[in-house]
Amino acid sequence: MTTLSRIRIGSAPDSWGVWFPDDPRQVPWQRFLDEVSASGYEWIELGPYGYLPTDPEVLAEETGRRGLRVSAGTVFTGLHRGPGVWDATWEHVAGVAALARTTGARHLVVIPAFWRDDKTGEVLEESTLTAGQWRDLTRQTERLAREVRERYGLKVVVHPHADTHIDTEENVTRFLDATDADLVSLCLDTGHYAYCGGDSVKLIETYGERIGYLHLKQVDTRVLAEVRAQELPFGPAVARGVMCEPPSGAPALEPVLAAAQGLGVDLFAIVEQDMYPCAPDAPLPIARRTRAFLRSCGA
């Protein structure tokens, strides 16, 4: 077994069924922190802004006494919509980045906007971008990355995501080829990339210098086939169980982690098993089993 000495394992509120700052179907933040610590993880993400305490002193106290540290904050952006969305985008980003910085985090995960409603499936805009929209997306992402780095000292890692415009191998590589490697890195989510037909190992081997962060996730290929056949939006697909507990799904995580280790750089690999909505007692045993599995992989 190879020791994955360059990989730092963590988990996220997403693995506890948390998608929103406040939702009655989600576990309270105190329970998430208690259980993620009890599962053997030392690193977490902030999740949706406002779920965990936004007071830096309270957050530091609550994470510190449980032996937890923060690896990243997360924001959703619609930068392909042009300069007109910049001010509102920056207002949101700045709040999350400021909180992330106070925790000692070094990364900001940026997720593109959905082109169809995550719950209803209503088409909100075209699923493919025009050339002009691609230019706006890439240029404004570079601007965002530059501002976040200069003002908050964080590295922007863009997260390819189902039902967004950065999803398939074609769109991910187009985005990477059009952005400055010094500014923009990738948060490779193994589950989302497989959901959209991509090969994570191939991407790491081809664009290794652009891989700045990992989300570990697997898809149930049987459920995925149904999702594709029925053209389900991502939210209902998750509720159907399209993202599953490792190591029962795809892609196999051992070769992904080995390829990441081979890059020779320190990387966070944050478990993010989409589970919204889920029974409150479901996440903890899954998290414990997943942590044990990743230890068996050398992480």
UniProtKB/TrEMBL annotation:
<dbReference type="InterPro" id="IPR013022">
    <property type="entry name" value="Xyl_isomerase-like_TIM-brl"/>
</dbReference>
<feature type="domain" description="Xylose isomerase-like TIM barrel">
    <location>
        <begin position="33"/>
        <end position="295"/>
    </location>
</feature>
<protein>
    <recommendedName>
        <fullName>Xylose isomerase-like TIM barrel domain-containing protein</fullName>
    </recommendedName>
</protein>
<dbReference type="InterPro" id="IPR036237">
    <property type="entry name" value="Xyl_isomerase-like_sf"/>
</dbReference>
<dbReference type="Pfam" id="PF01261">
    <property type="entry name" value="AP_endonuc_2"/>
</dbReference>
<dbReference type="InterPro" id="IPR050312">
    <property type="entry name" value="IolE/XylAMocC-like"/>
</dbReference>
